[in-house]
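Please, structure for the following, as tokens.
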Amino acid sequence: METARVARSLQRWGDRLVGKLMTPEEAALLPTGPDRARALALAIAGKEAASKAIGTGWSRGVRWRDVVVNLGPPPSVDLHGRAADVARSLGGSGRTRTSLEFRGPLAVGQVQLLS
């Protein structure tokens, strides 16, 4: 996820964007100020990686707020709702192994389902 793109979207949409992507509890943990866009970019990268790990993307009833990212340390992803149902149908326990990092201007996430 490009951090500059997230910063532009956050500047344009503000709390509306955050509310669409995150639960209120998750959003409350985002920092304020200049680090907010970078933290949101990391959270989006984790959410996208989780949606790919369960093989649905944002379809088949899986929503952005079904994937909750804790930026840590250590970072973690919790699956709820339809995302958790799909993970269990794949043999997952609902637990994940998560890696979130910055590589230059990109926020990169990796999520593995654990059995």
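The domain at 3-113 is CATH 3.90.470.20 (Ribosomal Protein L22; Chain A). The CA atoms of residues 54 and 90 lie 8 Å apart.
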